[in-house]
Amino acid sequence: MQSRRVIFLSLLFPIIVAGLVITSPLYYHPLRRDNVPIGAYTIPWMTPNPSIAVLGSIATPLLPWNISSVIGNGLKLEINFRVVLPKETLIVTATIYLGHDSDYLYLGATFRGAWLDPTASAQAYGSDDFQILFDADNDGQLSYPEAASDLPTYICAPVNERAGYCQPYYNTAGWGRPNLSGAGDRAWQGNWEDASLSCPSPFNSAGGWTSEYNNNTGTLELLLARHLSVPNTCGNGIHMRSGERWVMGFLLQFGYSNTNASMPYTDFVDDWPRLAYPFPTNDASWWPKLVIDLTRPPLGY
Description:
Largest sheet: 9 strands, mixed
Number of helices: 5
Strand content: 35-45%
Number of strands: 15
């Protein structure tokens, strides 16, 4: 009798184990762990210091902060954006920083020579637009819903400000805090468009943002936190889990809104590493690769 019981349990045990494995979410949805290609940009673990909340709450008169000290230990890219305008070509030199922790991708930037929008009908303000675009499944083809984050910033001169529209304050050194129209998601549907236009229930993946602008030098600084996982939403194509490593194609874009244009996709922008706007094709195979690795978090994360 004892031997029969042992045999029965020995047969039952693998069946139970197999059942547990099959019912585990990892059986149907294994962790994504991409191989890292040569030349890929690996984003380091880091958290902005001070935090976005602290930077955004600095009281009047505005005390400027330096993005290089806030997120300077992130991945650093030096870029020249060449924005072709109707009557001139504007060269905006930029330093871009990328970092992440277990919850957020952090994107910081300094743009030098980012003056008020020269195409705007009212020269008292300008709209600068900075975007990061992702080939989230890293297949070299943009397909709905690939992901992107948009951080438009409305900069106002310290005079002739439009009441209720754009009212930053400036200190004597020329620094002020421009209004952000709100960081939002973008989705690929023929062209990048607001996720709210193409998603049944879009979710803003931004976890926080802040900016500052020097009216004397045309220096714009931005900082954005983007959720690495927003499940059950179509606008955000990034849904990372702990223990995963993702490789994604990415593209950076900076420019100005064409405020006099009635047709979409006619803004004045430049891309890095090369101009792709207004995306006549969905080919992202040439985009550089970005690596976010959540497999081995350092101590403290």
